[in-house]
C-alpha cells in the first residue's frame, strides 16, 4: 500500500535494526483517514471469503479491526490481555509472548463471540515473530472456527512471523513489508513483483 509506505518513510522512526516506531500515526496518535484506508485494503483482500468476524488483540490492533469490520459489515472482536471482573463467561485463553514488552500475557476471548460457524480474518498492527497472530490463530482453532487469513499492517519480513504462519497453512497479507531497516539508512521495503507482460 503506497500511502502507508510513504508515511512510514516520512514519519516512522527506526529505533534499532528490529524496532520501528510508528506511534505518531499508527499506534499511539492515530491517523483516522489512513486507518480507514487500511481497513478498506484488508476488506478488499478478504471480501470474497465470506468473512463473518474480524479478530484482533488489544490494544494496537483494535482500530484496524474496526475499520476492516466496518468495510466488511461484520462485527469485530478483540482478545483481552487481562481478565476483567466483567469477563464472567467461559473463555478461550492462550498465552502470548509480547515482542515489545518482553512478557507473556494470558489472552482471552469470550466463547460467546466466536463459534464453529465463524469465518475469521485476524488483523494486527505488526507481524514480527508471529507470536501474537499464532496465539490468535490458536483461539480461532479452540472455537472450531475457520481461519480465512491474517492481515498485518506492517510486516518485518526479516523476522520469522510470516514463515511460521505459512508453515501451518495460514494465508498472510501485509500492507507494508519491510525487508531491512537501520537507524542510519532507514527502511527498505520488499520490492513487489511486477506482473510480467505475456509475449504472444
Ligand atoms: P510478534 O508477536 O509478531 O512478534 O509481534 C507483534 C506485536 O508486537 C504487535 O502487536 C506489535 O504491537 C508489536 N511489535 C512488533 N514489532 C514491532 C515494532 O517494530 N514496532 C512496534 N511499534 N511494535 C511492534
Summarize the structure in words.
There is one protein chain. The chain is of the alpha/beta class. The chain contains five helices and ten strands; from the N terminus they run αββαβαββββαβαββ. The strands form three sheets. Strands 4-3-7-8-9-10 form a six-stranded mixed sheet, sandwiched between helices. A two-stranded antiparallel sheet has the order 1-2. Strand 7, helix 4 and strand 8 form a beta-alpha-beta unit. The model has no long low-confidence stretch (mean pLDDT 94). Guanosine-5'-monophosphate binds next to strand 2, strand 7 and helix 4.
What are the SSEs and their pairings?
Blueprint lengths: L1 H10 L1 E2 L5 E2 L10 H15 L6 E5 L4 H11 L3 E4 L11 E7 L6 E7 L8 E9 L3 H13 L2 E11 L4 H7 L4 E11 L3 E4 L11
Parallel strand pairs: 3-4, 3-7, 7-8, 8-9
Antiparallel strand pairs: 1-2, 5-6, 9-10
The structure holds guanosine-5'-monophosphate.
Guanosine-5'-monophosphate binds next to β2, β7 and α4.
Amino acid at each position: 500500500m503506497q500511502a502507508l509506505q510513504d508515511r512510514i518513510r516520512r514519519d516512522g522512526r527506526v529505533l534499532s535494526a528490529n524496532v520501528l516506531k510508528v506511534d505518531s500515526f499508527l499506534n499511539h496518535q492515530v491517523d483516522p483517514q489512513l486507518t480507514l484506508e487500511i481497513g478498506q485494503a484488508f476488506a478488499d483482500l478478504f471480501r470474497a471469503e465470506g468473512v463473518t468476524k474480524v479478530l484482533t488483540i488489544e490494544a494496537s490492533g483494535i482500530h484496524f479491526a474496526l475499520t476492516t469490520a466496518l468495510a466488511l459489515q461484520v462485527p469485530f472482536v478483540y482478545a483481552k490481555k487481562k481478565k476483567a471482573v466483567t469477563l464472567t463467561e467461559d473463555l478461550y485463553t492462550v498465552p502470548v509472548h509480547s515482542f515489545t514488552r518482553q512478557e507473556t500475557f494470558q489472552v482471552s476471548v469470550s466463547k460467546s463471540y466466536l463459534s464453529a460457524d465463524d469465518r475469521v480474518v485476524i488483523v494486527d498492527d505488526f507481524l514480527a515473530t508471529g507470536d501474537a497472530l499464532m496465539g490468535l490463530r490458536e483461539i480461532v482453532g479452540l472455537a472450531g472456527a475457520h481461519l480465512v487469513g491474517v492481515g498485518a499492517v506492517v510486516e518485518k519480513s526479516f523476522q520469522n512471523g510470516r514463515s511460521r504462519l505459512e508453515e501451518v497453512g495460514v494465508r498472510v497479507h501485509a500492507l507494508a513489508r519491510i525487508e531491512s531497516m537501520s537507524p542510519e539508512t532507514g527502511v527498505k521495503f520488499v520490492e513487489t513483483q511486477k506482473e510480467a507482460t505475456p509475449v504472444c
